[in-house]
Amino acid sequence: MGSALYLIHTLGCQMNERDSEIMAGQLEHMGYAPAAAEEEADLIIINTCAVRGSAEDHALGHIGRLKQLKAKRPRMTLAVAGCMAQEPKTIAWLKRHAPHVDLVFGTHNLHQLPRLLDEAEQHQEMLVEVWKSAGDIMAEHVPSRRKPGVRAQVNIIYGCDKFCTYCIVPFTRGRERSRQLDDVLAEVQALAGEGYEDVTFLGQNVNSYGHDLLPRVDLADLLTQAERIAGIRWIHYMTPHPRDFSQKLLEVIGISDKVSRQLHLPVQAGSNPILRRMNRKYTREEYLDLIGRARSAIEEVTFTTDIIVGFPGESEEDFALTLDLVREVRFDSAFTFLYSPREGTPAARWEGRDPVSDPVKKDRLNRLMALQYQISWEANQLLLGTTPVVLVEGPSKKEPRIWAGRTQQGKVVLVERESEADLTDRFVPVKITSAKTFYLAGRVAGAPFPASSRSVHTIAVR
Ligand code: SF4
Predict the structure, then answer these.
(1) Which among 128, 196, 281, 311 is placed 20 to 30 Å from 461, CA to CA?
(2) Which among 15, 167, 176 is the best mutation to test ligand 1's pocket, defined by most ligand atoms within 8 Å of the CB?
């Protein structure tokens, strides 16, 4: 009798991807093996995202479709996890419309998966165990199954205390809780030993790291110490909040060889009345001042951002201020979203009173994207003829005869394949010969950097 097989579907952000790695590690520690397809899986976990309506609809649709498979294979266990599981409305929906689900657990108790699966086995009905908060538990040394390669994600802080009025995250991920600095550094050290070279520090509010620790530390301290770990070539961090971007952090990035000089600073809107209604806790002027200070402190700094269009009450004047801010900062790229009301958030109650109509929302989004695409194209033209180092991720999905990778600043680069050498997971100098809106293209301009010591990636207990 071969091992039981598992399959995890992950929706949403990098935090969810990392949570899925921790679920996979626990399962493989229990003797499970990865399934290649749903039809052969003994356990299917849907790791959900609640940040937008579309993500929720996708998950509920998938759960509904799995009813047939469950009818054919009643011993298969179906579990629902992630941010949607933290929402009471989801539990109510699952109980009414998806009794074929066996287990529901949330974002605070995923480190207890072996026990939860064992208990679900004893339960005839759906077992629902969702913790309101993680309390004082900081689950360290839980097995995880990382993706092979040289890029690794490391959680440093969980939750969010910001309560932006449109966001469900503080309700699904709880209050900010930082991991101990030594635990994080030990994890990075171990990753370097396993051949990982590009580390991304994760947090819903990554630059709030350490404010709850004694002695107090911050992201700047962590970056400074992580920089000293041999074998780590690149360091990234996701997602910072403009309000917590200290001058100290700017200066640490400015003198670093390893920390990315691309700052992802979600601005969300350009007008102060809207920023106030969003509870973003900074003004347009303060945001632009931060951009100015970053430009002085960090050579070759680039910026990307997130922008929400159509927030309740957004007037044409408000939107014009958003366009104006985009022209002033000249972001390399921007993630742009139509406002999507999240039940349980303050803004969702305003949507009823002060909505922006869909046609207006869509028109504004198109105008914003047209402006941003022009700026992105112009920014990429400036990189023609340069020779950045590119981390090759593998063959391009669209055109397998060429390589696809990213620069340290996160720019997508397509690289001509000039030899049979496998450049996957290699850091390669690439001469940029063409520049489009969304990507650069070029050819290899030197030998790949020597790979740091690499050992077989085992199930790491972290
Ligand atoms: S900072 Fe705001 S948008 Fe970001 S996770 Fe926290 S509440 Fe949500």
Answers:
(1) 128
(2) 167
C-beta separation of 105 from 129 below 8 A: yes
pTM of the model: 0.94
The amino acid sitting at 269 is A
**CATH 3.30.70.20 at 148-381, yes or no:** no
Q: Do 360 and 325 meet the contact criterion of CB atoms below 8 Å apart?
A: no
Fold entry, domain 5-129? Rossmann fold (3.40.50)
Of ligand 1's listed atoms, the one at least distance from the Cα of 161 is 6
Using CA atoms, how far apart are residues 27 and 14, in angstroms rounded to an integer?
A: 20
Ligand 1 center to 270 CA (angstroms): 17
Tens digit of each residue's pLDDT (9 = 90 or more) over 52-103: 888 999 999 999 999 999 999 999 999 999 999 999 999 999 999 999 999 9
Q: Is the pLDDT of residue 304 over 50?
A: yes
Domain 389-444 has CATH 2.60.40: no
Q: For strands 440-444 and 427-435, give the pairing.
A: antiparallel
The alpha carbon of 442 and the centre of ligand 1 are apart by a number of angstroms equal to 37
Residue of the CA atom closest to atom 8 of ligand 1: 167
Let me know if the fold of 5-129 is the same as that of 148-381: no
- Where does ligand 1 bind, in terms of residues with CB under 6 Å? 160, 162-164, 167, 169-170, 204-205, 241
175: its two tokens: 């209050």
Full 3-state SS string of 104-130 = EECCCCHHHHHHHHHHHHHCCCCEEEC
| 8 Cα to the center of ligand 1, angstroms | 26
Report domain extents, the chain.
5-129, 148-381, 389-444
CB 22 within 8 A of CB 144: yes
CA 163 / ligand 1 centre spacing (Å):
6
Q: Give the residue, by CA position, lying nearest to ligand 1 atom 2.
A: 164
Q: Which atom of ligand 1 is nearest the CA belonging to 205?
A: 1
Q: Which of 213, 106, 166 is nearest to 342 (CA)?
A: 166
